[in-house]
């Protein structure tokens, strides 16, 4: 399953532009007074401005599975990586065979670089903005993750992520290429103490050559 595009809200287009274009070097596809759209590897990241919006999203980018340390170095003068309880900045997801680092964008969204070792996406050379391969995950907040998950499975032929223990508090739909992360409201976004809130999101997916549009 591939995430082709996500559309989310921002309360400040200029802060969004400063982070994703000026700091991270992503290419702007479209920009007007009310929205801005970036190319993020094979995915598209679109923000719609809403001055009244007062919340955050969580989403992740796939990076080459062999370049986590290079990504950490690249981030060094750009963002403050979130330090975990063990004083490391790297999370080891053993069941997912992946390692992640976390940080915030200028609007307070919780971002993640994830190196998934079951993907054949090794790269050589310097890590830079072109090393951001795709949008890997988008967090979705719902009262019943399993109910929504089963609904998406029935309507769109999707499936629960087999390497995740899917529960009523946390479930994942998809695979290593792309995941919908379903969580209950007020569950803290790992690895922070920020409670999750339900926010509007539009998602375009590609699954088994089928194009899927999800509006939540």
Automatic annotation (TrEMBL):
Origin: domain of life: Bacteria
Pfam families for the chain: Glyoxalase
Domain VOC: 2-116
Coiled coil: none
InterPro entries referenced in this protein's UniProt entry, alphabetically: Glyas_Bleomycin-R_OHBP_Dase, Glyas_Fos-R_dOase_dom, VOC_core
Name listed for the protein in its UniProt record: VOC family protein
């Amino acid at each position: 399953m591939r995430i082709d595009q996500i559309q989310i809200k921002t309360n400040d287009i200029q802060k969004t532009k400063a982070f994703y274009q000026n700091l991270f070097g992503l290419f702007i596809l479209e920009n007007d007074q009310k929205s801005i759209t970036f190319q993020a590897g094979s995915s598209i990241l679109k923000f719609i401005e809403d001055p009244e919006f007062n919340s955050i999203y969580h989403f992740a980018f796939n990076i080459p599975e062999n370049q986590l340390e290079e990504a950490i170095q690249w981030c060094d003068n750009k963002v403050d990586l979130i330090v975990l309880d063990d004083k490391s900045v790297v999370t080891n997801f053993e069941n997912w065979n992946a390692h992640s680092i976390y940080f915030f964008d200028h609007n307070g969204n919780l971002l993640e670089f994830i190196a998934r070792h079951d993907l054949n996406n090794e790269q050589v050379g310097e890590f830079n903005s072109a090393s951001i391969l795709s949008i890997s995950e988008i967090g979705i907040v719902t009262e019943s993750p399993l109910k929504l998950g089963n609904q998406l499975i029935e309507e769109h032929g999707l499936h629960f992520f087999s390497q995740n223990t899917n529960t009523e508090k946390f479930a994942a739909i998809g695979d290593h290429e792309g995941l919908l992360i379903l969580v209950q409201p007020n569950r803290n976004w790992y690895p922070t103490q920020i409670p999750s809130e339900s926010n509007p999101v539009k998602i375009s997916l590609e699954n088994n050559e089928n194009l899927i549009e999800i509006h939540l």
